[in-house]
Amino acid sequence: MAPSALLRAAAAALRRRARIAAPLQSISPLTHTPTPPPFPFPDPTPIPAARRHLITLTRRPCPNPPSAAASSYYVDRILLPSTFSRPFSTEEGKEDGVPAAASWVERRLPEAARPYAMLARLDKPIGTWLLAWPCMWSIAIAAMPGELPDLQMLGLFGCGAILLRGAGCTVNDLLDRDIDNKVERTKSRPFASGALTPTQGVCFLGSQLLLGLGILLQLNNFSRVLGASSLLLVFTYPLMKRFTFWPQAFLGLTFNWGALLGWAAIKGSLDPAVIVPLYTAGICWTLVYDTIYAHQDKEDDLKVGVKSTALRFGDLTKQWISAFGAASIGSLALSGYNAELAWPYYPLLTAAAAQLAWQISTVDLSDRADCNRKFVSNKWFGALVFWGIVFGRLTS
After folding, report:
1. What spans are recorded as compositionally biased (Pro residues) (predicted)?
2. Residue 342: predicted pLDDT
């Protein structure tokens, strides 16, 4: 039977039950109706941004059974939702008091696969972008003058970024599961909420690392050794917040390893004059965006006793991240100069600097939603630098 026919049949059944005075189960709309019915009913809570309608059925009998006319009024005007509330999520579920829209993971994947996809943060691609951009910068700057970057290598590193970021998140959540359930933003993550067990997480981590190994084996021997050495950072970074106020610096060392690896995959060696400034630029950039990100959790971090640069910098955060932003842009300029990139690189680098300055100057560090928006905007900073390198190399 078609879904519309099922809905009509259900509505007719409810009307028949109301006519024979059978008590209806309580129906609670989430949106305001223009003309309320002539009997006491729970005060609706409007959510203008969401505009969703939801039928909530309970087992308790309604204290004031509605009349047949009133029940028909609601049955005719309330629709079943197209999406349902989420059992868990990897990030905060609300922004400005409005429930976040369901991600593609919740809409498209089978229910059994959703916890694993959310554990790998497939519903939050910003982390993958932030991990991939330093790789892409390095591959592009290693291209021959007048040529585009190696597209096959860009594809390999893109897949590797997805897998390595997912593995890092799995390690992080395994080690932090007892902390995550005490932090508002993270208490609904798969381990903290009980959606997955640690054993399932370890098996999932093994599969991610195995697939990553398959990508690594397609590179040259120097890159294989260099890539495998990054696993030490991947496994130790999540512990840093317990011992130092600078876990964001360790994240920078980890997330920007691709700045070394991309060049090595093309050239088979490292050129310190180009790669060291590029790696330094990525680390300073990470200190900017992840300090902004950490301000979302500073109250909870104080309660559970973990550390971050957000707590270390405090009221001086904007001064600190301004200095790191300037260091990042300066290092990128030095790397491009040493790599002999042509003039188109510098206007786009200037645009990237303006984007970074906009983030720092306008972010409201006391507003979690604004911190998250500025954090997510860093994908555009990475894109501006990448295209600057591409055009600078094409015209050099």
Report:
1. 34-45
2. 95
Q: Which CATH architecture has domain 126-185+205-394?
A: Orthogonal Bundle (1.10)
Residue 167 C-alpha from the chain's centroid? 14
**H or E stretch covering 13:** helix 3-19
The 3-state DSSP class for residue 282 equals helix
Closest CA relative to residue 256, chosen from 148, 355, 341, 378 = 378
**SS3 state at 377:** coil
Q: b/e per residue, 41-57, with b = 16+ CB within 10 A?
A: beeeeeeeeeebebbee
Residue 334 dihedral angles phi and psi, to the nearest 5°: -65, -40
pLDDT per residue as tens digits for the range 353-365: 999 999 999 999 9
pLDDT at 7: 57
- 0.90 exceeded by pTM: no
Give the percent of the chain with pLDDT over 90: 54
- Strand-pairing partners, residue 94, are 99
Which regions of the chain carry the CATH code 1.10.600?
A: 126-185+205-394
For residue 110, count other CB atoms closer than 10 A to its CB: 7
If you search the block for the tokens 């084996």, which residue do you land on? 217
Close Cβ partners of 185 (under 8 Å, ≥ 6 residues apart):
91, 92, 296, 297, 300, 368
Contacts of 331 (CB under 8 A, 6+ apart): 277, 278, 280, 281, 284
